[in-house]
Amino acid sequence: MRIKDYYKNKPVFSLEIFPPKPGSPLDGVFATIDALSVLRPDFISVTYGAAGGSRFYTVEIADTIKNKYGIEALAHLTCINSTKEEVAEILGRLQKAKIENILALRGDRPADQSTIPPTTDFQYASDLIKFIKTKADFCIGAACYPEVHIEAEDAMADLHNLKRKVETGADFLITQLFLDNSIFYAFREKLDKLAIGVPVAAGIMPVLNKKQIERITSLCGASIPPKFRRILDRYENSPEALKEAGIAYATEQIIDLLSSGVDGIHLYTMNRPEVAKTIFGQISGIRKHLKAET
Ligand code: FAD
C-alpha cells in the first residue's frame, strides 16, 4: 500500500530502523523487526547509507518487513555520490521486492568531500524525486527541517526548496528530530502559509545518551531546549535515570503532538525495540481512542 494513503486516516505511527555495518550479520536487525512488529506500526522505514556503507542491506531489510511481516516498508534512498545507473539498479530491486514507498533524500556529504561540489548525477533530493518519477510509480516521501537544514541559505530559502521538492512529487514529509514542540507548530504554520499541503510526520527521537544527542544535534542543527538540557545535565552519569527521563520526555512530546492533531509520529528507534515498546505502551489507550475516531 502507498504510504500517502495511510495519512488519510491519521495519525499514522511509524518506526525507523537502520541496517548493520557492511559485512555484519543481519540477525540483529531481524530480531529488532521481530520485536517492533508486535507494536503494529503503520510502516517501518529503513535508512540508507549515503557514503556507500550500509546501502546494500536496505532493500533486503525492507523486503523482510513487507513480505515476511506484512508491515508496509519505506526504503530510504540517498542520491549524493550516486550515479543514475546505481539508483536505477536500486529502484529495480525495490520493484522486484514489491516495495512501493521510497524516502527520497540527498544524503549528507561525506566529511572529506564537504568542500567539493558533488560530482554525481544528482545535486538535491528534488533531482532524485524527478529521476524516480521517470522510472516508476513509487509513493515518495521526503525530509523536512523545522529548525532549518544546516546548509540552507536561510529559513525562507529552505522552505522554498522544500516547496519545490513537494511540487516535484513528494507525497508526504517526515521531519528531522526536534525536542521542542513549539518549533514544530511554528513550522507547520509556515508550511500552511506556503500552501505546502502534504502530510507531515513528526520525527521523535527518545534521547538516551548525552554525548550522542549532542553529536546528532550539532550535525543536524536541531536545538536542545533548556528544559531538556537540565535533564541531560542532571542525569548524564546515570544511564538508567537518563533513559527513564528520555523516554518520558519523548512520550510527553508525542502525547502533545497527538492532541494537537499531528499527521503522524515517526519514532527514531535507534534499533532499541524496548524503548519503542515502552513508549507505545504508554500511549496505547490514546492510540486506541484515536483509531476509533477515524
Ligand atoms: P535536500 O532536500 O536536497 O536539501 C539539502 C539542502 O539543499 C537544504 O539546505 C536545501 O535548502 C538545499 N536545496 C534544496 N534544493 C535546492 C536548490 N534547488 N537550490 C539550492 N539549494 C537547494 N541521510 C542518509 O544518509 N540516509 C538516510 O537514510 C537518511 N534518512 C533521513 C530521514 C529523515 C526523516 C531526515 C530528516 C533525514 C535523513 N537523512 C538521511 C539525512 C539527510 O540525508 C540530510 O539531512 C541531508 O543533508 C539533506 O537531505 P535532503 O534530502 O533533505 O536534501
UniProtKB/TrEMBL annotation:
<dbReference type="GO" id="GO:0009086">
    <property type="term" value="P:methionine biosynthetic process"/>
</dbReference>
<keyword id="KW-0486">Methionine biosynthesis</keyword>
<dbReference type="InterPro" id="IPR029041">
    <property type="entry name" value="FAD-linked_oxidoreductase-like"/>
</dbReference>
<dbReference type="Pfam" id="PF02219">
    <property type="entry name" value="MTHFR"/>
</dbReference>
<keyword id="KW-0560">Oxidoreductase</keyword>
<comment type="pathway">
    <text>Amino-acid biosynthesis; L-methionine biosynthesis via de novo pathway.</text>
</comment>
<dbReference type="GO" id="GO:0071949">
    <property type="term" value="F:FAD binding"/>
</dbReference>
<keyword id="KW-0520">NAD</keyword>
<protein>
    <recommendedName>
        <fullName>Methylenetetrahydrofolate reductase</fullName>
        <ecNumber>1.5.1.54</ecNumber>
    </recommendedName>
</protein>
<comment type="similarity">
    <text>Belongs to the methylenetetrahydrofolate reductase family.</text>
</comment>
<comment type="pathway">
    <text>One-carbon metabolism; tetrahydrofolate interconversion.</text>
</comment>
<dbReference type="GO" id="GO:0035999">
    <property type="term" value="P:tetrahydrofolate interconversion"/>
</dbReference>
<keyword id="KW-0274">FAD</keyword>
<dbReference type="InterPro" id="IPR003171">
    <property type="entry name" value="Mehydrof_redctse-like"/>
</dbReference>
<dbReference type="GO" id="GO:0106312">
    <property type="term" value="F:methylenetetrahydrofolate reductase (NADH) activity"/>
</dbReference>
<dbReference type="GO" id="GO:0005829">
    <property type="term" value="C:cytosol"/>
</dbReference>
<dbReference type="InterPro" id="IPR004620">
    <property type="entry name" value="MTHF_reductase_bac"/>
</dbReference>
<keyword id="KW-0285">Flavoprotein</keyword>
<keyword id="KW-0028">Amino-acid biosynthesis</keyword>
